[in-house]
Amino acid sequence: MKFSLVFTGKTSESYLREGVKVYLDRIRHYLPVEVKEITPLRETRGLDPAMIRAKESEWFLKNLPSSGYLVLLDEAGSELTSMELSAFLQARMNQGIRHMIFLTGGAYGVTEEIKKKSNFILSLSKMTFTHQMSRLIIVEQLYRALTILKGEPYHNP
User: Fold this and answer.
1) Reduced to 3 states, what is the DSSP secondary structure of residue 34?
2) What is the Cα–Cα distance from 140 to 143, expressed in whole angstroms?
3) Under a CB-based contact definition with an 8 Å cutoff, are residues 5 and 124 in contact?
4) 56: closest CA among 7, 3, 102?
5) pLDDT values of the chain reduced to their tens digit, one per residue, 157 residues
6) Top-level CATH class of 2-150?
7) In angstroms, how far is the first alpha carbon of the chain from the final one?
8) Furthest CA-CA distance within the chain
């Protein structure tokens, strides 16, 4: 399996950027992973959130791989424990899924069309995190899930 992580904008905080890099390198020990960062809309003054969401979602629809299992990170999604995320990944691997795409929308989320296109909608928590922090959380949790699958000592249930 391969992971693709699609984020809106860059990780500008150096401590978060370093943390994301650490976990991406760790994930690469198990499987290929790539990060795609889309440039957020620059001229948003005067645009309402629905228009911004629509324009960003249009980019996603054009640029997401046509095949692959799409996991949307969204506050309204299902919450999983680390053990459940591990089991979720194992089940997708058992189904023969070869490419899993994790998508984080922009500040205003994504359109219903993207939500319908998603194979699964995942919430990282009931709490609100910045988009940059959510990047670190998802890569750490993916790494943790992979160590659980391998029975390695990183995760202590």
Assistant:
1) strand
2) 5
3) no
4) 7
5) 999 999 988 888 999 999 999 999 999 999 999 999 887 777 777 788 898 888 888 888 888 887 899 999 999 999 999 999 999 999 999 999 999 999 998 888 899 999 999 999 999 999 989 889 999 999 999 999 999 999 998 865 5
6) alpha beta
7) 25
8) 52
pLDDT of res. 156: 59
Which structure tokens are listed for 149? 């699958």
pTM greater than the 0.85 cutoff: yes
Tell me the C-alpha to C-alpha distance, in Å, between residue 110 and each of 56, 61, 79: 7, 11, 18
Burial tier of 30 (Cβ tally within 10 Å: 0-12, 13-18, 19+):
middle
Pairing label, strands 99-104, 120-123 = unpaired
Residue 96, phi then psi, degrees to nearest 5:
90, 15
pLDDT at position 61, please?
Answer: 86
Q: What is the CA radius of gyration of the chain?
A: 15
Sign (positive or negative) of CA dihedral 73, 78, 92, 135: positive
Type of residue at 94: N
Distant-in-sequence, close-in-space partners of 154: CB < 8 Å, separation ≥ 6: 143, 144, 147
Determine how many CB atoms are found less than 10 A away from the CB of residue 22.
14
